[in-house]
């Protein structure tokens, strides 16, 4: 199975999103994706999905902080899942440039949400990167 990093990231987003609706572990979610949809998960996808969910206690407060005047409950589950994945990448994946992570997040939002969601996500991520003074890798 050969998949681009963008395709792997998109699958990781889908796994993270689907985990919002059940109490399965990520391994169980991956197994269900394979059993029900014949989706094979590569190492990059698995790492992104596993580690993002593992770090939610660190990631979710960041979403709350930078989504000015928006509680996480008011943000669509699609946008929250995209933000979680991107924030994980920015903070914990040293080999992915921040600009790539943000661009991929915006593209996922355009594909699975709306242009307004894409702008909202871009704004939150840009604000976070500027405020935390993160340098592109």
List keywords for this structure.
single chain, mainly alpha, N-utilizing Substance Protein B Homolog, Chain A, 137 residues, 72% helix
Written description of the protein model:
The chain is mostly helical and 137 residues long. The chain has a single domain (5-131), classed as NusB-like (N-utilizing Substance Protein B Homolog, Chain A), CATH 1.10.940.10. 72% of the residues lie in helices and 0% in strands. The protein has helices at 5-19, 26-37, 43-54, 56-66, 77-92, 98-112, 115-131. Helix 1 (5-19) runs parallel beside helix 3 and helix 3 (43-54) crosses helix 5 (77-92). The mean pLDDT is 92.
Strand content: under 5%
- H/E element string? HHHHHHH
Q: What's the pLDDT, averaged over the residues?
A: 92
- Main pleated sheet: none
Domains, number = 1
State the distance separating the first and last CA atoms. 28 Å
Overall radius of gyration: 14 Å
Q: Write down the oligomeric state.
A: single chain
Q: Report the CATH architecture.
A: Orthogonal Bundle
> Which structural category fits the helices and strands?
mainly alpha
Q: Output the CATH class name.
A: Mainly Alpha
> In terms of per-residue confidence, which ranges show pLDDT below 50 for 5 or more consecutive residues?
none
CATH overall fold name: N-utilizing Substance Protein B Homolog, Chain A
Overall 3D geometry? globular
CATH superfamily: NusB-like
Tally of separate helices? 7
Helix content: over 70%
Tell how many strands the DSSP assignment holds: 0
């Amino acid at each position: 199975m050969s998949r681009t990093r963008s395709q792997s990231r998109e699958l990781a987003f889908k796994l993270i999103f689907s985990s919002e609706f059940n109490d399965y572990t990520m391994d169980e979610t991956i197994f269900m994706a394979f059993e029900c949809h014949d989706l094979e998960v590569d190492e990059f996808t698995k790492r992104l999905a596993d580690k993002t969910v593992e770090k939610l206690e660190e990631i979710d407060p960041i979403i709350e902080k930078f989504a000015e005047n928006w509680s996480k409950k008011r943000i669509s589950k699609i946008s929250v899942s995209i933000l979680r994945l991107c924030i994980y990448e920015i903070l914990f994946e040293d080999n992915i440039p921040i600009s790539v992570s943000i661009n991929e997040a915006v593209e996922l939002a355009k594909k699975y949400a709306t242009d307004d969601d894409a702008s909202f996500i871009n704004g939150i991520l840009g604000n976070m990167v500027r405020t935390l003074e993160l340098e592109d890798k």
